[in-house]
Design goal:
Elements lengths: L1 H25 L3 H24 L6 H8 L12 H14 L4 H31 L5 H4 L5 H5 L6 H15 L7 H15 L1 H19 L5 H32 L8 H13 L15 H7 L9 H24 L9 H24 L3 H7 L1 H21 L1
Helix pairs in contact: 1-2, 1-5, 2-5, 5-8, 5-17, 8-9, 8-17, 9-10, 10-11, 10-15, 13-14, 13-15, 14-15, 14-17, 15-17
C-alpha cells in the first residue's frame, strides 16, 4: 500500500509538471492551468484505483506486460502485438516494473486529453475572447473516459491519438499535417479498424479546407490525387482487415461480413453483459452508446455506466440538432466546420464499433472514443451559442 501511495504521489507530481509546462508554453489562463492540474489528479486517481483493485486479478493490462517477456518474430506489429512490443521497449529504456508501465500508458492518455483541453481553450479564446467555460470543462471529467485509459492497453494509445488528431483540426495549430499523420499512424498500430474512419475524416477535413484555395489546374490535380489515395487506402484497409481476420481462424473467412458475425458470437459468449447481436441493427448504435438499460442494473458501476451512456446519447442528439441550427453566423464558419467533421467522425465510429462489439461489456469500454469526440463537438457548438447570447 505504501508503494501504491508513493506511486500516486509521483503520478500527481507529473500532472503538476505537465500543467506548469503547458501554462508557460501555451500561455494558459490560471483557470485553464488549474483545470489541467485537476484533470491530471483525477486521471491519477483512476490509475491508483485500477492498481489497487486489479491486484491478484487477471486483466488485459497484466497480460500485455507478461507477454512482453516472449516477443519474437511471430509477434505482430498492430493491435495486441504493437502494445506488447511497446511495453517491451518501455521496460528496456525505463524501469522494468508493471506499475511504471501503467504510469507511462496513463500519462499518454492524459496527454491526449490535455491536447483536447488546449484545443478547445484556444478556439474559445480566439472565437469570442473568453476562456473555456467550466460547464464544458466538466465533460472531460466523465469517469469512463479515464477509467478505461489508465492501464497498459490499446485504449490509452487511442485516446492520445484522438487528442492529437483533434488538435490538428484547429486553425491555430502548428504542424497540422504532422499531427494528423501521427494520429492516423498511432490509431492504425493500436486499433486498425478505428484508424480507417479517422483517416478518411481527417484527410477529408484537410482536403476540403485547403484545396478550395487553389487555382483550377492545381485543384484538379489535387482532387485526382486525393481520389487515388482515397481508393487505394480503402482497398488496402479492406484486404488488411481480411488478412487479420484469416489469421484468427484456421479455416478463414470469405469476407469481412462473416468475420463480424463470428466476432460478435465469440464476444457474446464471454458473458460480459447483454449480447448486442440480439439488438436490431437500426437501433444498435444507440444501444451501443447506452450499453446498460435501467432494468439491467445490478450494481453501482452499472448505474454509473448507464448515466454516462445517457450523457453520450444527449451529446449526440445535441450535436446533430445544433450543427444545422440557424444560430451560426459568418464568424463561426471555421468552428462550425471543425464541429461538423468531428461529429461525422463520432457518428462513423459509433456505427463501426456497434457492429464489432458483441456485448454490452465491450461496448462500455469502446464507447469512450466517440464519447470524447462528442465532448469536443458539443463544446465547439456551445462556445458559439454562448458567444451569441
Amino acid at each position: 500500500m505504501v508503494d501504491l501511495l508513493a506511486f500516486a504521489v509521483i503520478a500527481i507530481s507529473v500532472s503538476l509538471a505537465t500543467s506548469l509546462f503547458c501554462a508557460k508554453r501555451f500561455g494558459l489562463s490560471a483557470m485553464t492551468s488549474n483545470v489541467t492540474i485537476g484533470l491530471g489528479v483525477w486521471h491519477a486517481a483512476f490509475l491508483y484505483a485500477f492498481l489497487v483493485f486489479s491486484q491478484d486479478q487477471v486483466s488485459d493490462s497484466a497480460n500485455y506486460f507478461a507477454w512482453s517477456d516472449d516477443v519474437d518474430e511471430s509477434t505482430g506489429w498492430t493491435g495486441t502485438g504493437f502494445i506488447v512490443r511497446l511495453v517491451e521497449l518501455i521496460r528496456f529504456v525505463g524501469i522494468d516494473d508493471y506499475w511504471f508501465a501503467c504510469g507511462v500508458f496513463s500519462f499518454m492518455s492524459y496527454v491526449g486529453m490535455v491536447f483536447v483541453l488546449l484545443t478547445l481553450d484556444e478556439l474559445s479564446y480566439f472565437s469570442n475572447g473568453k476562456r473555456l467555460p467550466l460547464g464544458l470543462v466538466a465533460l472531460l471529467f466523465i469517469p469512463g473516459l479515464h477509467f478505461w485509459s489508465v492501464a497498459v492497453g490499446k485504449d490509452a494509445i487511442c485516446v492520445l491519438a484522438l487528442g492529437v488528431g483533434v488538435s490538428s483540426l484547429s486553425p491555430f495549430a502548428r504542424y497540422k499535417f504532422l499531427r494528423l499523420a501521427s494520429s492516423c499512424v498511432l490509431l492504425f498500430l493500436a486499433r486498425p479498424h478505428l484508424a480507417i474512419p479517422c483517416f478518411f475524416v481527417f484527410f477529408a477535413f484537410w482536403y476540403f479546407g485547403v484545396v478550395k484555395r487553389f487555382d483550377r489546374l492545381l485543384r484538379l490535380v489535387s482532387t485526382t490525387g486525393f481520389a487515388l489515395v482515397f481508393g487505394l487506402v480503402l482497398v488496402a484497409a479492406y484486404w488488411f482487415l481480411l488478412d487479420v481476420v484469416q489469421k484468427y481462424s484456421v479455416a478463414g473467412f470469405d469476407g469481412v461480413g462473416e468475420f463480424l458475425d463470428s466476432r460478435g458470437d465469440i464476444y457474446a459468449a464471454t458473458g460480459s453483459g447483454v449480447s448486442l447481436n440480439e439488438v436490431p441493427l437500426v437501433v444498435r448504435p444507440l444501444y451501443f452508446l447506452i450499453s446498460v438499460l435501467p432494468w439491467q442494473i445490478a450494481s453501482v458501476a452499472q448505474l454509473v455506466s448507464m448515466i454516462e451512456g445517457l450523457v453520450f446519447l444527449f451529446l449526440l442528439f445535441s450535436s446533430a440538432r445544433n450543427l444545422w441550427s440557424k444560430t451560426w453566423d459568418d464568424g463561426a464558419r471555421e468552428a462550425r466546420r471543425v464541429a461538423f467533421w468531428v461529429f461525422c467522425l463520432a457518428l462513423l465510429v459509433v456505427v463501426e464499433l456497434s457492429l464489432i462489439s458483441g456485448n454490452a461489456g465491450l461496448a462500455v469500454r469502446l464507447r469512450i472514443f466517440p464519447g470524447l469526440l462528442l465532448v469536443v463537438c458539443v463544446s465547439l457548438i456551445r462556445l458559439r451559442l454562448s458567444a451569441r447570447s
